[in-house]
């Protein structure tokens, strides 16, 4: 198949491209050439800004299109006006859901309905903007659209460092502060598993909506699977962290337990995706491969999580 990838050189996109290439597809990249411009030197590239230069991709009909880089309707509208394809895959997010009070959300669960004004992506507008993107695709592409809603994506090349934080902290043989209860559930998806599933659906032109997440595990299991078991873990409950001014996700994979988030996290049902072929590697494997990637980076500095100094302050107040 001749597949046009919008983006394709950052985190999720690069894993998607690698999977497509490994399956023998002809891949063409359309992006600005700013992120990792030397990546995939053997692939054809159309250089352009999706908002200004979408006409560059309108002269050809594509067997399939994979969109990894649209965050707002302004990113998407020019593409919709120019694209010709039999199948359009859009990478969305489980952040489109607006109610996590009744257990893991399903593909049919309620999503944000308000139309957000402006064009600034923030923690508050990210989910609503993605809903607006999904709706625009459905209006323009109709029954030819595949909507992928991943949870927190982990693995090598992750620019957010949310999982990377834990992979590093739990393998440096120091005392580590762990947030929330041991029993609360957490969930993720490895970028390679996300790519494998997405390309599998793209190849057979499956349509519809899929939550793409691994099976949830307790935070205790999460820690045990990642840890080298030589580090010491100290658990801090929600109330202590709130009193100390720690905000949701400041410690990755943690949201204070509340009426809005009774699970202390955002969880999604993955039964539909698993029945369509979703499989996932172990947390231990994801952590190992993430650490191997970090080791190649040289002077690597985490962009997520609390500082070592702040962690020590919190541990000291706990008597550690």
Question: In words, what does this structure look like?
Answer:
By secondary structure, the chain is α/β, with parallel strands linked by helices. It folds into two domains: 2-154 and 188-212, Rossmann fold; 162-186 and 217-265 and 281-317, UDP-galactose 4-epimerase, domain 1 (Alpha-Beta Complex). Helices cover 32% and strands 16% of the residues. It contains ten helices and 13 strands. The protein has helices at residues 11-22, 73-82, 126-141, 162-169, 191-203, 219-226, 238-243, 271-275, 283-295, 308-317; strands at residues 2-6, 26-31, 44-47, 64-67, 88-91, 145-150, 153-154, 175-179, 185-186, 189-190, 208-212, 217-218, 232-236. A seven-stranded parallel β-sheet has the order 3-2-1-4-5-6-11, sandwiched between helices. A two-stranded parallel sheet has the order 7-10. α1 (11-22) links the parallel β1 and β2 (26-31). The chain starts with a strand and ends with a helix.
